[in-house]
Design a protein that fits this description.
- The structure holds two protein chains of two kinds.
- Chain A has one domain.
- Chain A is 25% helix and 34% strand.
- In chain A, a hairpin with a 2-residue loop joins strand 3 and strand 4.
- Chain B has a single domain, classed as Rossmann fold, CATH 3.40.50.300.
- In chain B, helix 3 packs parallel to helix 5 and helix 5 runs parallel beside helix 6.
- The longest helix of chain B has 15 residues.
- Classes of the chains: A alpha/beta, B alpha/beta.
- Chains A and B meet through helix 10 and helix 11 of A and helix 2, strand 7, helix 3 and strand 8 of B.
- Chain A: This is Iron-regulated ABC transporter membrane component SufB.
Chain lengths: 482, 249
C-alpha cells in the first residue's frame, strides 16, 4: 500500500529536528568552568552586588557543599559534574539601560527565530516581556507603561541594585537557601532571572512574560525569579524556555518564589520546551527546578504548566496555604517522548483554616519515556475545613513507555476533605480509525485526542499561550502511536 | 457509484468474505441482511479501509476509482461514510470541534480553504435541527456518556455534515428506541438524493420500515446468496434465515 503509515510518520519525526535547536554566535563573556567561593564572589562582583547579597550567596554555597544530590525521584541520569560547568555567561553587548536599539543585532535575529519579535512586542499592549539569555536579562519591554502603575518588572540583578529593600525582604522567604540541593546551588550562583512587584490594589493590566534561553555550550542556567503581589493585587505571569540541541546535557536549576499577600492573586504559567535530547536519548537539558508560592489570607496562587521539553525534569510547583481561606491550584500537562523522564507534580501545604487546593495533572507518555506524577497534600493540625481535590490522568502511547503516580496525603486535621481520582488510558487504534473514517489523518487524529485529554489544563492558560501550547503538544507527540 | 467485485477477505487467517459482488448506483438504497457472523460488519469495515482485515482478492470501486490502495481518510474524503455500530468515545473533544476538524480536513484534501466560522455554525445548526439534537449536546465530549440513541443520532449528524456519496449504516438501528429510530431514519431519508446512495446493514427488518430499500441482499457465510426487492426483507422477518439455507441446499 502506498499509504503514509504511522511507521513512516514515526521515522520522519524521529529524524525531525528540535525546532529551537539552533545556536546563535554571540560575543559572550563566559567564566571558566568550576565552582568555588572565588567564582561566587566573582559573579557577585560582576553584577555589582551589595555585600549582603554576596554573603547570602556564600552562605548558600557552604550549605550546598554539605548537601547530597537527591535520589528519591523516579528518574535515572548521570549526575552532572558541577566542576565542569561554567556558572556565568553573558552576551557582551548588553547595554545597561537596555533600550532595544542598543541590543546586539545577532540577539534580535535570535528572537526572530524564536518567534519573538521585540518590535512587535513594543506595539502589542498585552504582554510585557523580559528575556534572559544564558545568565543575564537582556531586554525588558513596557517598563514605562508598567511604572505608571507602580509595577516593577525587571531583571533580578537590576532589582538587587534598584530595589534592595524589597529583594532583601523577600528573597529566600519561600524557598530558603538550604531548602534542597538544587535550590542551594541556585542561591549560590544564580545569575539573573526576573523580579516583579505589584503594588497594593493594582491589577496588572497586561501579561508579564519571561523568555529563558540557554545559548552557550558548557554553561548552566540558574535563574531566580521573585514575584511579589502586594495586598489585593493581581498578576498573570508567563514563562517560556528553549535551548540549542547539544550532545551534552545542560543543567538548568531555577528557583521561583511567589508571594501573594492578603487578597492577592498570582497566576503563573509555564511552557517549558528545553531541548529534550535526541531520539537515542543523547543530550538534552536537566531541568531541576524549585518553584513555590506563599499565600497569605484570602490569597490565591495558580500554577499552570505545559512541560514538553528537557531530558530529565524534576519539578514540583507548590503552594504554602498559610493564610485562612487561601487557595492553591496546580494544572499540569507533562509530555514525555523518546527517552525523556519527568518526575513532576506539586505540594499543597494547608496551614490556614478553610484553605482549598485543586490539582489537575495530565501525563502523556510516548516512545520509551517515563512519566511520573508525584504530589503531596498536607493538612496541618490548625487547618480546619481544608479541602483538596486531586485528579491525575495518564495517557500512554505504544507499549514501551511508563506512567507512574505517587500521591502522598498527610492529614493532621479530622475536618479535612481530600479527594483523589486517577485514570490511565491508551490511545486506541479504534479511536484513530474512527477519526480516519471521518477524513482525519492519523497524525491529526492523535493531536485531537491528546488535546482533548489535556483540555482541562489547556483551558487554564492565557489565550496566546494556549495556542502555542497546543502546537507544542502536537509537535512533541506526532508519530508516537504504534 | 459503488462497485464491489469478487471480494475475498480474512481476519487473522480466518476467511470471512468469500466472493462478494455488489453494484450500487446513485440514488439507490440497498440493504444487506443476514444472520450474526455472516460477515456484514466485516464488509462495511473493509469498504471503509480498516486495515485489520486482509483483502486477498477482488476490488472495490467508487465512481470507477479503485479504492484498495487508499487509506481510510482518503476514502472518507472521496465520499465514503461509515456510521459505526459502536462509535468510540473521544474524551475532551466536543461534537462541534470534531465535526469542524473533519469538515476542514475534507476540504483540505479537496484543495479548498477552511470553512468560514459563520458558515460552519449555520451548517451545524441546520443539520443538528434535522436530527432534533439539543444545542447542549454539541458541546459535549464525543460519545462520552451518550445513550445508544444519542450515539447513533450523532453518527447521522456527521453524515449530514459531510454529505458523503455512499453512506454505510452499520446496524444503525441497534440500541435505538422507536422515537430515536424514527428521527435517525427521517434524517437519512432527507439526506437521500439522486446523487448519493445508502447501504443499510442490518440484522432486523425494523429499520427498513422507515428507510425503504430498493434492493435487499442476503449475506450468509461470506457470500450474497439471494437478492430481491423490499418484500424480501419482510419475508425474512417472517420466516427467519433458515428457509434460505434450506433453499440453497
Amino acid at each position: 500500500m502506498s499509504k503514509y503509515t504511522e511507521e513512516d510518520l514515526k521515522v520522519e519525526l524521529e529524524n525531525k529536528e528540535y525546532e529551537y535547536g539552533f545556536y546563535t554566535e554571540l560575543d559572550s563573556e563566559t567564566f571558566p568552568v568550576g565552582l568555588n567561593e572565588d567564582i561566587i564572589r566573582a559573579i557577585s562582583q560582576k553584577k555589582e552586588e551589595p555585600q549582603w547579597m554576596t554573603d547570602w550567596r556564600i552562605e548558600a554555597f557552604r550549605a550546598w557543599q554539605e548537601m547530597e544530590e537527591p535520589e528519591w525521584a523516579n528518574v535515572q541520569y548521570e549526575k552532572p559534574d558541577f566542576q565542569a560547568i561554567s556558572y556565568y555567561s553573558a552576551p557582551k553587548k548588553v547595554d545597561p539601560n537596555k533600550t532595544l536599539d542598543d541590543v546586539d543585532p545577532e540577539l534580535l535575529a535570535m528572537y526572530k527565530k524564536l518567534g519573538i519579535s521585540i518590535d512587535e512586542q513594543k506595539k502589542m499592549n498585552n504582554i510585557a516581556m523580559d528575556i534572559v539569555v544564558d545568565s543575564v536579562s537582556v531586554a525588558t519591554t513596557f517598563k514605562k507603561t508598567l511604572a505608571e502603575k507602580g509595577i516593577i518588572f525587571m531583571g533580578i540583578s537590576e532589582a538587587i541594585k534598584e530595589h534592595p529593600e524589597l529583594v532583601q525582604k523577600y528573597l529566600g522567604t519561600v524557598v530558603p537557601q538550604k531548602d534542597n540541593f538544587y535550590a542551594a546551588l541556585n542561591s549560590a550562583v544564580f545569575s539573573d532571572g526576573s523580579f516583579c512587584y505589584i503594588p497594593k490594589g493594582v491589577k496588572c493590566p497586561m501579561e508579564l512574560s519571561t523568555y529563558f534561553r540557554i545559548n552557550q555550550a558548557g554553561t548552566g542556567q540558574f535563574e531566580r525569579t521573585l514575584l511579589i503581589a502586594d495586598e489585593g493585587s493581581y498578576v498573570s505571569y508567563l514563562e517560556g524556555c528553549t535551548a540549542p540541541s547539544r550532545d551534552e546535557n545542560q543543567l538548568h536549576a531555577a528557583v521561583v518564589e511567589l508571594i501573594a499577600l492578603e487578597d492577592a492573586e498570582i497566576k503563573y504559567s509555564t511552557v517549558q520546551n528545553w531541548y529534550p535530547g535526541n531520539k537515542e536519548g543523547k543530550g538534552g537539558v536537566f531541568n531541576f527546578v524549585t518553584k513555590r508560592g506563599l499565600c497569605e489570607k484570602n490569597a490565591k496562587i495558580s500554577w499552570t504548566q505545559v512541560e514538553t521539553g528537557s531530558a530529565v525534569t524534576w519539578k514540583y510547583p507548590s503552594c504554602v496555604l498559610k493564610g485562612d481561606n487561601s487557595i492553591g491550584e496546580f494544572y499540569s500537562i507533562a509530555v514525555t517522548n523518546n527517552f525523556q523522564q519527568a518526575d513532576t507534580g506539586t505540594k499543597m501545604i494547608h496551614l490556614g483554616k478553610n484553605t482549598k487546593s485543586t490539582i489537575i495533572s495530565k501525563g502523556i507518555s510516548a516512545g520509551k519515556s517515563q512519566n511520573s506524577y508525584r504530589g503531596l497534600v498536607q493538612i496541618g493540625s490548625r487547618a480546619d475545613n481544608a479541602r483538596n481535590f486531586s485528579q491525575c490522568d495518564s495517557l500512554l502511547m505504544g507499549n514501551n513507555c511508563g506512567a507512574h503516580t505517587f500521591p502522598y496525603i498527610e492529614s493532621k486535621n479530622a475536618s479535612a476533605k481530600i479527594e483523589h481520582e486517577a485514570t490511565t488510558s491508551k490511545i486506541g487504534e479504534d479511536q484513530v480509525f474512527y477519526c480516519n473514517q471521518r477524513g482525519i489523518p492519523t497524525e491529526k487524529a492523535i493531536a485531537l485526542i491528546v488535546n482533548g485529554f489535556s483540555k482541562d489544563v489547556l483551558n487554564k492558560l492565557p489565550m496566546e499561550f494556549a495556542v502555542e501550547a497546543q502546537k507544542l503538544l502536537e509537535i512533541s507527540l506526532e508519530g508516537s502511536v504504534g | 457509484m459503488l462497485s464491489i467485485k469478487n471480494l475475498h477477505a480474512s481476519v487473522e487467517d480466518k476467511q470471512i468474505l468469500k466472493g462478494i459482488n455488489l453494484e450500487i448506483k446513485a440514488g439507490e438504497v440497498h440493504a444487506i441482511m443476514g444472520p450474526n457472523g455472516a460477515g456484514k460488519s466485516t464488509l462495511s469495515s473493509i469498504i471503509a479501509g480498516n486495515e485489520n482485515y486482509e483483502v486477498s482478492e477482488g476490488e472495490i470501486f467508487l465512481d470507477g476509482e479503485d479504492l484498495s490502495e487508499l487509506a481510510p481518510e482518503e476514502r472518507a474524503n472521496k465520499g465514503v461514510f461509515l456510521s459505526f455500530q459502536y462509535p468510540v468515545e473521544i474524551p475532551g473533544v466536543s461534537v462541534t470541534n470534531f465535526i469542524k476538524t473533519a469538515i476542514n480536513e475534507k476540504r483540505k484534501a479537496n484543495g479548498q480553504d477552511e470553512m468560514p466560522a459563520n458558515e460552519m455554525l449555520k451548517l451545524i445548526r441546520e443539520k443538528s435541527e434535522l436530527l432534533e439534537m439539543d444545542r447542549k449536546f454539541l458541546s459535549r465530549s464525543l460519545n462520552e456518556g451518550f445513550s445508544g440513541g444519542e450515539k447513533k443520532r450523532n453518527e447521522i449528524f456527521q453524515m449530514a455534515m459531510l454529505e458523503p456519496k455512499i453512506a454505510i449504516l452499520d446496524e444503525t438501528d441497534s440500541g435505538l428506541d422507536i422515537d430515536a429510530l424514527r428521527i435517525v431514519a427521517n434524517g437519512v431519508n432527507k439526506l437521500k438524493n439522486e446523487n448519493n446512495a445508502v447501504l443499510v446493514i442490518t440484522h432486523y427488518q425494523r429499520l427498513l420500515d422507515y428507510i425503504i430499500p430498493d434492493f435487499v441482499h442476503v449475506l450468509m457465510d461470506g457470500k450474497i446468496v439471494k437478492s430481491g426487492g423490499a418484500a424480501l426483507a419482510l419475508e425474512l422477518e417472517e420466516k427467519g434465515y433458515d428457509w434460505i439455507k434450506s433453499e440453497l441446499n
